[in-house]
Structures are given as C-alpha cells and as structure tokens.
UniProtKB/TrEMBL annotation:
This is D-arabitol-phosphate dehydrogenase. Keywords: Metal-binding, Oxidoreductase, Zinc. The lineage of its organism: Bacteria, Bacillati, Bacillota, Clostridia, Neomoorellales. InterPro entries: ADH-like_C, ADH-like_N, ADH_Zn_CS, ER, GroES-like_sf, NAD(P)-bd_dom_sf, Zn_alcohol_dh. SUPFAM superfamilies: GroES-like (SSF50129), NAD(P)-binding Rossmann-fold domains (SSF51735). It comes from Neomoorella glycerini. The keyword Zinc applies. Belongs to the zinc-containing alcohol dehydrogenase family. It is an enzyme of class 1 (oxidoreductase). It comes from the Bacteria. The keyword Zinc applies. Residues 7-340 form the Enoyl reductase (ER) domain. Its EC number is 1.1.1.301. GO terms for molecular function: oxidoreductase activity; zinc ion binding.
Amino acid sequence: MRSIIFNAPGKLAMREIPMRPIADDEVLVKVEACGLCTWERSVYEGLEPAEFPFIGGHEIAGKVAAVGSKVMPAIAVGQPVAVASLTRCGECYYCQRGLNNQCLQVKSKPVNDQPWGPGGFAEYMYVKRYMVHPLANITNLDTGILAEPLACVIRAIRRADLRAGDTAVVIGAGLMGLLFTLVAKYYGARVIISQPSATRRQKAIDLGADYAFDPRQENFVDFVRGHTGGYGANVVFYTAGGQQAIVDGLKALAKDGHLVVYAPIHPEAALTLDINDFHYREITLTGSLMHDHQSFVTATELISRGVVRLSSFNILRMPFTQIETAIERAKDKNIHRILLYWPDSN
C-alpha cells in the first residue's frame, strides 16, 4: 500500500509498505479521505517539534476492509467509519482517571526507524476496534473527516461546562472556530465571534453566530459586555489570535466564567496574569487537548444526524499524489480544509 512519509522538515516521500495479515483483534480500514490539518503542516514546515520519520493523517474517513476473528463488538466489512487514531490503553494512570486523551502509551517517536504518527496518510490502516466509529445515514463519506476535529471541540465545550442560555465567545473563525459555533448553538448558547476577517465573520453568522466583530476595530471587552447586559461571557474559546486575544478573553469573562485555550501559541510565549482577578471573580483558565473516546462517539452521532455537514465548509479535494501542492494551497485562509484522497485506489 502507498503511504506518505515525512522524513525531515520540508522533505516527504511516497513509500510502498507491504500489506500484512490482519491480527485477530484488528480492523483493516481502507482510507477514503483524510483531512490535511494545521498540525501536519506545522510538522512538515518544522514549526511543530517532532521526530522523523513521521506519518501524519488523523482526520480519517474510510470503509472497513477486513475484520479480525476476535473483534468485538462486531462490525461489518464495507461499513463507513471515522477513525480515532489515538492510543487509549485503558490501563495507565491517565486512562484510569478518564483522561484517555493523555494516555501514556501514545508513541511520539519512531521505533526501529519505523514511522510514528496517526497513520491516515496511507491507503490502509490496521487499527483496534475502539478506534473505529461507524457512520450512519451519510451520503458523502468525506464528511467523516470532520469527526476528529468535531470531537476535539465537543471535549473542549464539555471542559468549559457550557450550558443552555450561556454566552460563548469564540476567538477565531477558521474551521475550528466554526465548529465551536455550530456545537455551542446546538447546545443552546449564544455565540459571539471575534475575527478580523470580514469574510470569516460573515461565514460564522451564516452558520448561526449571533454577533461577530473585528477586534482591530472594536474594543474586545466593551463589545462583549455590551452584548451581555454588562456581565461578560460565561465561556471564551480561544482558537487563534495570540497572547493579546487570551488577555482580552480573560477580561471579558463574567464571574465564574471559563476560558479554554484550545490551540497553542507559536512561538511559545508567557502571559502576565492578575492572580487576584482569579480569586475575586472566580474565573477559570484551562486548556483542552485532542479528543477522548466519549467525545468522538458524540461527534460521529452528530455527523450521522446531519447536525454537522461537510457542505457548510469550503473543502478542497486533492489527491495524495499532490500533497506538497496541497500543503501550499492550505495556506489560503478561504479554504477551511484540504481533503486528501487516493486516486485509483483498489
């Protein structure tokens, strides 16, 4: 089978990897589509620290090609699925505490010169049953690439304790900001978008955001408080914007509010915080990393119900054979995601 291997920053190659017999506890998935995420682009460009060789691809949609003899629960060959390509051993300290997104068995470097990584940049994947999430009632399997980013958003929203009737501010209206908008509205919250781009602000409004403003033209805190009766936001989700956006987001919180840092800042930067503000206003600053098993289950359910549709976003389909061109095209901020597929794959 063909696969795309990153050998060093700025260097990749297509490699033929021999197929092997499927293990009794494995599911063989034929990759039909895979999103090109910012993370893989950052690894390729040397912005994200990583060891090589590396095989990316974690926004995966496919079909079950074969099932091991001891796989439970049963799943049929041909079943459309999304793949959560993240190890969850169920036994380590963090898995036992319900933090299976922090599993200690996750590999972060090559072993015996074999590529490490989620593995979706290949024609086939050998995965455990818990990684495979069936998709139902979908006419376009490509929609499955949204399961992974949607699952990350659902977990972040759960960490924020977002409730119906709350006001949520979403900083940034790229793909992740739009997914936050859709899910927050589904859960019954009002949504305010902070986004410099007029095009992206309008897209957020089209998908249900109640208000949107340009933080370069409006005072962040004044705008939020002006649209919340002076109280501020119950929750702020940071997806992009840098240090100042986080500082502004904290100031815009209502008492007992939560700010969730969903995305990292590159290069790393320190913030100066007023600790008394946390004491007197009882606000919370936290992070959210990846997805967990339950949030992935919820994501595939929402996709299967049509709550989140691929047609809501500007998706560009490109073959894996043009991945270097795709990495360049992905810099176009009008494109929400590049969807990679294998041409003439059997």
